[in-house]
């Protein structure tokens, strides 16, 4: 039986793009009354047609307003919604928190009912048509409270995050913007710069691309218009990280320019090793810094093979902690890279081979 939603009453969502419509889908699925609004009538109608909520009514009295608009108009919309709905708590889901807050403070807006927030969720493609109710599940949702935030208002915004399956994390706006510069904004630029090298690359080179380069450049498919706004709003902190990164790149380039010079090989090795150390710090499954080992299984490209593989791993009492699929162009099979706990590696490899599976990275022969 589905749990009752923590958020009660009407929730007004302003902005019917990817995040706004996704909030609408998730809350509507829980039985919450969602009133959608957007400056684009076509976008609004599309989101409503897809079931993300209903059209707004003049008598709406929302308990919560979620502002999900581009960063360059976030402050304007927050100010308008605070004035239009005096009984509502107003939050926003913009990916930058300091700039809209400072703009509102400079205007003298009463922010006692405003709480900035940001779900660390998204997709490369935006718009209502790309929205999904499950986009927030298991994702961090930063909530930026201040000294004026009441416990009840804070609880309402955290209830929104919990209803959507996210994990609320309290941060100051400064902590948030510094953090996303490192884990979101600079990675977007790095992925875009790397993918930009492909524009003039020979076709033959691109045919060699494997899953590694696809993983590193996946987010390069993001919308330029939105990212111009995001990066501009967090420019100073992004530049700090870029300057440090540029220094790292220069040191590696210098080492490779003279690879036989004393210390050159160590400089390259230290760069790779520091990357290893950084990856080790990333939270894994369920937020744990727990490392897994991988088994690469060759899977025929025919219907039902992945289902059979998972079923037989279950029979072997092996839990799949993570999965990555790679397809080689023109090959009649794919590679399933399965992450398992270290003590399950031998059991999984031996058991799968006994059932006729081919293990590409087998070390137990």
Automatic annotation (TrEMBL):
Pathway: Amino-acid biosynthesis
EC number, as in UniProt: 1.3.1.12
Keyword tags: Amino-acid biosynthesis, Aromatic amino acid biosynthesis, Oxidoreductase
Listed GO MF terms: NAD+ binding; prephenate dehydrogenase (NAD+) activity; prephenate dehydrogenase (NADP+) activity
Residues in Prephenate/arogenate dehydrogenase domain copies: 9-286
Top-rank taxon: Bacteria
Biological processes per GO annotation: tyrosine biosynthetic process
Family that this chain belongs to: Belongs to the prephenate/arogenate dehydrogenase family.
NCBIfam families assigned: PRK06545.2-3, PRK06545.2-4
Name of the protein in its database record: Prephenate dehydrogenase
